[in-house]
Each structure stands twice: as structure tokens, then as C-alpha cells.
Amino acid sequence: MAAVIGVDLGTSAVKVLLVDETGATLATGSTAYPLQQPKPGYSEQDPEDWIRSVKAAIIALGKKPEADLSQVAGLSFSGQMHGLVLLSAAMRPLRPAILWNDTRTTAEVNQINQTMGKRFIEITRNRALEGFTLPKLLWVQKHEPENFAAAKMFLLPKDYVRYRMTGVAGIDYSDAAGTVMLDEDKRRWSPAILATFNIPASLCPPLIEATDCVGTLDPEFAAAVGLPKTVKVFGGGADNACGAVGAGVLHPDQLLLSIGTSGVVLTYEPDSKTTYNGKLHYFDHVVPGQHYSMGVTLAAGHSLNWFKKTFAPDEDFATLVASAAASRPGANGLLFTPYLVGERTPYADAKIRGSFIGIDSRQTRADFVRAVIEGITFSFRDVLAVYQDSGRTFKSAITIGGGSQSPLWLQIQADILNLKIVSLKNNQGPGIGAAMIAAVGLGWFASFEACAKQFVEEKATYVPDRKQVERYTRYYKLYHDVYPATWPITAGLLQTEES
Ligand SMILES: Nc1ncnc2c1ncn2[C@@H]1O[C@H](COP(=O)(O)OP(=O)(O)O)[C@@H](O)[C@H]1O
Ligand SMILES: O=C(CO)[C@@H](O)[C@H](O)COP(=O)(O)O
């Protein structure tokens, strides 16, 4: 039976999925790569690590007994968003990629706001934030003029991988929207933004739809990984847009929660004129012509990852998270805020840092683990509150990503958010979404909706417990007070460290 491959270029690892025409996942593989944080606020990766890891993951996939790569007809991508890959005339990276969670660009964000004001939101439907691509380009323009002058084109992470696999450069609309250089109404690179900031139009890659076929695999790449050179390669999209289709979130009453390195609360937007005035991100979808909105916690899985690396390096995630059961709701009076690399929603604040509040000598490590996962979930409640304040209501949410694997955490999500939480048989939403793009692109399905019916299967449902909802609501009110009380202190700490 014919099959497709979804390549999910995450922040912590690339995940590859082999999926057949019925939507069955035949085999998966994953290869991790490092993240460099040379200074506070910096977050970079070497694009060559992505290429090596994608190759290694596909080769490993092909070695699995259940995988027959000769059956692969199409391949597509899901990618970490916003990262700047600046390319030389030879189309090779001029410097490490500056990632979505790199917040060195506060001065450039201020420059954008001062120069363009409200007009910027009218054009892009988003406010400028440190994580988006335009401020990163302006940072290179100012701090590394030699790299800016030598640049032939920029690409986003998964677009660079696609380029290396096919020799064809392009960017799909869902990732182009996240550069905040796209004119949302006209669906083209904004001449006003490019002219205002002296960005040559030639730097911007050609725009494509997620489902467009860019060609077939480069024969050398195909031979190196054991795929047929006839495999059709489709544009693919931003990981959160892919996660949404991969979870079947295709209607405005549906909500998606994603716990990867970042955390995301996302919904489908039927009206192309909607704006949240920059409070939430509003981007093009991988469903051609459609949109979605979302709020982002910069360090969701990243907070847990940091905790594990620092305090429990020899434990696996499942054991670590399960240990929180020895604590109780509210972590025996311990609150954690996950602002380890600053925050995006609801606080667009690159300088805030995280905190544990209420440390008491009665507490144990289980309380700290519980506080971390509760704090990440409280930050999701902050985003949900932005939706609720704008009149949106949701009864349930579908949850995906590495953080959706723990039954304990899923029940905590239900109790803190007061929503029915649905987990999926395959929690790799972005990877499944990428596979769905290839399946729709190949014409196997007439629409993403038809494909989702076949590819997406629910696993379990977690219902809010009224008593815990009330208890968590009291803790949430206190959590909400931590940001205004701590930002002058953490900003002062950063300043002292930098001086
Ligand atoms: N068994 C688990 N239970 C809960 N959380 C987990 C588990 N395994 C991994 N995680 C969390 O998921 C994160 C990775 O999620 P993933 O969706 O793969 O991220 P990304 O796409 O950013 O690479 C880890 O950093 C960790 O915080
Ligand atoms: O910046 C954003 C969304 O705006 C992040 O959500 C990135 O897209 C990274 O995703 P993960 O690696 O956490 O899946």
C-alpha cells in the first residue's frame, strides 16, 4: 500500500512518521539535536544539524521491519516557526539559525513599533514580537552588516531542509505569515514593510501553498536515505498549523493545546478579517486560504526539560512527571511561573524570568515537579482567558505534543482549564499534519476534513473534577499575581548580570 512521510522539524528533535493510505502510522523515528544558548536571550541551532538529523532519522526509519520505503509516494514537512536561516549566494547558511525562542531583538521590536505603529498590525494582523523573523533580520542588518550584505535569501527552518532535499527554494503561507512581513489582505510580501526597513525583495523566498508540490527528491538525497527519487515533495507548514490539522482541529468551536518545547493554545478562525489587535497571533493556515489564531507560552516543555536536566538527569520524562502524584493539587503551596526565556502571551515581555514562590521546608521534590507542570498549565489558562475575554467559549480541547503523554498531566489540564481534555492515539500532531499535507497534496483526499476523518483517532477523555477546578481557580488567581510582582525583580537581575 502507498505511504507518505511526515517530517516534523521540532526544536528538540526531528520526528519522522511513515503513514499509509488508511492513516495507520507504520513506523516512526526521531533524532535529537542541540540548542545553543551562548548569552541570556540567545537561542540558536546549526542548520547542518537539522540536515544530518533528518537523514539519520529517515535512514533509521527505513531499517525498521515494518517500514518499506519503496512504497513512499509523497513527503511533507512541519517546522518550528519564525527561525531565521540566512543564506549566502551559494545557498548555504551564513551564520547559525536564530530561533523562535531567541529574544535578543527587543530594540528591533521597538524600532518596528516606533516606525510603523498601528499600520504594522493592519498589514500583518500581528504585533511585532522578539520571536518573529523580521526583528531577527533587522538585528543582523544592524549587528552583522557583512552577513546581511552577503545574504542572497532567507528561509525558515523546514524550508531550508526542503531546499536541501529538492534544490527548490520556497516558503509556504503559514510560515511566511510568522515572519510578519506578509501583507495578509493581498497575500504577498508587504512592499511597505520591506521599503520601510530596507529589506531587498530578493531576500524573500517565493510564496507557495502548503499543499503545492515543489518537485521530486534530489536524486543524491534520495539515494543517501533509501527513498525512491520519484517521491513528490509538498510545501508543508508551520508546526502549529500542522498540529491543528493533525489533531483534526478544523472548526472554530475546537481548541488545540500543544506542549512541545513551547506551549500553544490555538483555534481555527473562519473569518479572514479577524484581529485580536496583536494580543494573540493570527496566521495563515496550511488549509489554503484559511487562518488560525493562537497564544504561546515560550517555555512549556522547555521548563520541564530544564528541570529534568538540572535536577533529575538520569530519570526519564514519564517517571519524572508521574512522581508529581506524590504531591497534591497546588503542590503543597508552591507556585512556578514558566518564564525561563521570557514570555509571549499574555505578556509580550522578553525580560521576565521564571520563579518558584512559596518554598517551604515541608516540601519535597514531588512538589517541585508538580509545581512545574501546574505552572505551565496555569500559563495556558492565561491564554484561554484572552480568548474568553474576546467572547470565545470552548467546552473541550484536544491535546498534542510530547507533554500530552502523561495521564496525570492531562487530568491537571482538565482541572486547571475546566475543559474536557481529549488525547489522541498518535500525539505527534505536527508530524501527522505533515503526512496529511502530503496525502491531500497527492489527491488521496479531497479535503483536510476528509483526511482527518481517516487519520485522526481519539484515545482518552479527561473530565474536570469540580472540587479540583475550584481549588485550582484559587491557585490561578495567586499565579496571576506573580507576574506583576516579580517583573521588576527579574528584570533587575538580568540587568545586573549583563552589567
Ligand atoms: N512522557 C512525557 N510526559 C510528559 N511530558 C513529556 C514526556 N516526554 C516528553 N515530554 C515533554 O515534551 C517535550 C518535547 O515535546 P515535543 O513535542 O517533542 O517538542 P518539540 O516539537 O519542540 O521538539 C519535552 O521537552 C518534555 O518537556
Ligand atoms: O514560536 C512558536 C509559535 O509562534 C513555537 O510554537 C515554535 O513553532 C516552536 O514549536 P515547538 O518546537 O515547541 O513545537
Automatic annotation (TrEMBL):
The lineage of its organism: Bacteria, Bacillati, Bacillota, Bacilli, Lactobacillales. Catalyzes the phosphorylation of D-xylulose to D-xylulose 5-phosphate. This is Xylulose kinase. Its EC number is 2.7.1.17. GO terms for molecular function: ATP binding; D-xylulokinase activity. Residues 256-441 form the Carbohydrate kinase FGGY C-terminal domain. It is an enzyme of class 2 (transferase). The keyword Cell membrane does not apply. The active site is at 239 (proton acceptor). Keywords: ATP-binding, Carbohydrate metabolism, Kinase, Nucleotide-binding, Transferase, Xylose metabolism. It comes from Lacticaseibacillus camelliae DSM 22697 = JCM 13995. The record marks 8 as: Important for activity. It catalyses: D-xylulose + ATP = D-xylulose 5-phosphate + ADP + H(+). Belongs to the FGGY kinase family.
